[in-house]
Design goal:
The structure is a single chain. This protein has 5 helices and 17 strands. It has one domain: Fumarylacetoacetase-like, C-terminal domain (Fumarylacetoacetate hydrolase, domain 2), CATH 3.90.850.10. It is α+β, with helices and mostly antiparallel strands. The mean pLDDT is about 95.
């Protein structure tokens, strides 16, 4: 069957060492650091035994931005940064619920990303009891570093995730503070979706989210292992 319009090319993320990673879906985890849950007015679990179920939402695959410049989005006066570990899946999950012990075998590599959020739109939707897709799933809302193969990163829990804006650190936390770690999240996602190679998972953000303005320069890091640098530029005109 012939396409009636040209098929768009998949979004691709550079991989350290060569090659590109084609993106299929972007899953995001909300409230995965207790300090961020509290700063957003949500109740944080006192222990892992009380954590319940993770909160998930999605961004479109073409929200990924890897060019180093990100346009300030339309329809907002309150764009916020949320620095996150990003997990890239290199294998399909088996049918059914993924066993936590088998989850790591799906992981191709890791990156550092920003879950940019139109906070005013999200807050208004929450207050009205409506979905908040417009606050999260907009163009260029997922700036992302290169991806680094998992073997080069090793154990995640000692790693420190951080974000500086204009040279001043705003967010930082060790990955040991995650309420749900990577195997936990892949296990829970598999109850809801068929996980496939090409999927990205944004793992949630620590406390310290705040507003960005055109001209701001962001530097997000996972220790010395991965760095994302991007600059917020004025909104597109026309």
């Amino acid at each position: 069957m012939t396409d009636v319009i040209p098929a768009p090319a998949p979004v691709r993320v550079p991989v350290r060492g060569g090659g590109c990673f084609p993106v299929r879906r972007i899953y995001c985890v909300g409230r995965n650091f207790a300090d961020h849950a509290r700063e957003m007015g949500a109740q944080a679990p006192a222990s892992k035994a009380e954590r319940g179920r993770p909160v998930f939402f999605m961004k479109p695959a073409d929200a990924v931005a890897t060019g180093g410049e990100v346009h300030y989005p339309p329809a907002t006066a309150d764009l916020h940064h949320e620095v996150e570990l990003v997990v890239a899946l290199g294998r399909d999950a088996p049918d059914g619920v993924l066993d936590r012990a088998d989850a790591q075998a799906l992981v191709f590599g890791y990156g550092v990303g920003l879950d940019l959020t139109r906070r005013d739109l999200q807050a208004a939707a929450k207050q009205a009891g409506l979905p908040w897709d417009t606050g999260k799933g907009f163009d260029e809302s997922a700036p992302l570093s290169e991806l680094v193969p998992a073997g080069e990163i090793g154990e995640l829990s000692p790693r420190r995730l951080s974000l500086a804006v204009n040279g001043v650190e705003r967010q930082a936390a060790p990955l040991s503070d995650l309420i749900w770690d990577v195997p936990d999240i892949l296990h829970e996602l598999s109850k809801l979706y068929a996980l496939r190679a090409g999927d990205l998972v944004f793992m949630g953000t620590p406390a310290g989210v705040a507003a960005l303005s055109p001209g701001d320069v962001c530097e997000a890091t996972l220790d010395e292992a991965i760095t994302l640098r991007c600059r917020i530029i004025p909104a597109r005109v026309g």
